[in-house]
């Protein structure tokens, strides 16, 4: 069973994503701030990380920087899931080699699940 | 004018002429002498009557030499009368007396003397007249000279007045210029922007206090090379080399240049300076350059704050909206167990409203981005026909819902044009969504793409409700929605057309429309075949259909 780490500080969104993804058959790890997210990721090596950008303690892009310094973290698959739609952050994320950059309000939760599945299958292949 | 008083008047000049009038022909003494001679002559005439002697000759000789020419005429008349009387009486005597040779000789001699004297007087008179004429001529000439002198004097006087006036004008002008200069200097010194001017070789010829302050110039830089006086950095933090200094670019290329540079103050604070350098031209020859320096540090700060605010607002508004959106979707999808029909309908309504809310947030964000001019334009060669086809595919469901027919026609051989497909998609998407919304079921929606000279024209027509004539002027206004549209479709933000007009214009195109209520609406927008140049910005547009 594939494990997905969801780093999201908004409880309702975290609940929605966790519930939808576990219903889709994934094992879920949760973190509500950047620091916890980073340590959980480094400790549990999830198959995919759904990462928010605006987070307490450590923001998503800083967390991403730290993660990329780790041997495992260098290539860890990440999908940025945020509501920040400015170009600078998008470009920065893409530079840091994330799989995708999704705007929450533009994506149906169903489609997020499809994207996750797509990524994991690609990763497997 | 008071200066005129100093000038001698023409009259005083006239009075300076010699007193010619005093020189009269014949003095008082001469008159007495003449009178005596006349008396003697008269006496002689009388004695001739008595004696008939030759004394006449002497009388005439005396007359010739002593009588003044002027009086001779008058007196001679008297003498002639006397002579006639004497001759007459003598002749009468001849009739009575017997002829003697002496008498005849005396008669002819008298007659001869008479004729001779008449001729002489005649000659004398002519001579006198000639002399008079000469005098008149002289006087006339004199008055010509006098007139000439007078004229010259007047001319000189006028010249003097003119010179005086001119001097006064020059003084006034100098005064005025000094005031103007003082004013200009005051303006230059107190303007909010820094300003400096250089000669062709880049030496400072003028600099105001703001420029000195901004560039922290303490010593006098007049006459020195401007770019040696300070160090500028580009926005990436590299020192700007001499040849890339704005003033040098302006001097070299003879064109205006505007750029933003970073200047590091002595206290270590970095400030953003916008410098506009413009060449000074005289008869198309560059003779120097002017630099205007503006401190845009605060503007940059405000800009950054606005970006932050938009970013924050978007995040803050979108976060709860995504939660509502996702939970509603999960409800409808049955993640929390199957819903009955009514529950499902309610959830769908929540979902629709949420989408509208998201759309509105996206539109507001897009507008603030477009208005701030920070939008990214990322052109790539685009086939407009294919672009519209893909948009139509996305809209297929909506067309089908209203049983509307969609027709796309593109002229053959249309070139790919260099535009930002994401931006232009918004334009087509908005126009088509409007066409669908504001046309009844079974309507026809047409897109025609054609080329006209150097422009590609896209036409989007519907046979829908149309826009009332009296409201057509406001169609592109922010938040405007036509009355009939509001009645028929409550959904809509009134931002769509405002936004796409801004997009089309940012892509160097134009947008316009024709509409008749009850018959339909046609929108056209043009894009240059040459395409648009890329623009580095900070933001892209979010998808929105309103």
Kindly, what is the distance between the CA atoms of the first and last residues of chain B, rounded to a whole number of angstroms? 79 Å
Proportion in helices of chain A: 40-55%
Which outline of chain B best applies?
elongated
Structural class of chain B: alpha+beta
Largest sheet report of chain B? 5 strands, antiparallel
Q: Which stretches of chain A are low in confidence, meaning pLDDT under 50 for 5 or more residues running?
A: none
Mean pLDDT of chain A: 84
Count of DSSP H/I helices of chain B: 13
Number of strands of chain A: 5
Structural class of chain A: alpha/beta
How big is the Rg of chain A?
A: 13 Å
Largest sheet of chain A: 5 strands, parallel
Contiguous low-pLDDT stretches of chain B (5 residues minimum) are 1-26
Give the overall silhouette of chain A.
globular
Oligomeric form: heterodimer
Beta content of chain B comes to: 15-25%
Write down the overall mean pLDDT of chain B. 78
Which properties best describe this structure?
heterodimer, A: 125 residues, 5-stranded parallel β-sheet, 18% strand, B: 546 residues, alpha+beta, 16% strand, disordered N terminus
Question: What does the model show?
Answer:
The complex is a heterodimer of chains A (125) and B (546). With 125 residues, chain A is α/β, with parallel strands linked by helices. Chain A has a five-stranded parallel beta sheet with strand order 2-1-3-4-5, sandwiched between helices. In chain A, helix 1 (11-23) links the parallel strand 1 (3-7) and strand 2 (27-31). The mean pLDDT of chain A is 84. Chain A has helices at residues 11-23, 34-44, 60-68, 87-95, 109-124, and strands spanning 3-7, 27-31, 48-51, 78-82, 100-103. The two termini of chain A are 16 Å apart. Chain B is an alpha+beta fold. Chain B is 54% helix and 16% strand. Chain B has helices at residues 10-14, 28-51, 55-66, 69-96, 101-190, 209-214, 246-253, 297-333, 341-371, 384-401, 421-437, 483-488, 496-506, and strands at 194-199, 204-207, 257-264, 270-282, 285-295, 380-382, 405-410, 417-419, 444-452, 455-462, 511-516, 520-528. Chain B has a five-stranded antiparallel beta sheet with strand order 2-1-5-4-3, sandwiched between helices. Chain B has a five-stranded mixed beta sheet with strand order 7-9-10-12-11. In chain B, strands 6-8 form a two-stranded antiparallel ribbon. In chain B, strand 11 and strand 12 form a beta hairpin. In chain B, helix 2 packs parallel to helix 4 and helix 4 (69-96) packs antiparallel against helix 5 (101-190). Chain B is elongated and about 195 Å long. The two termini of chain B are 79 Å apart. At the A-B interface, helix 1 and helix 4 of A face helix 8 and helix 9 of B.
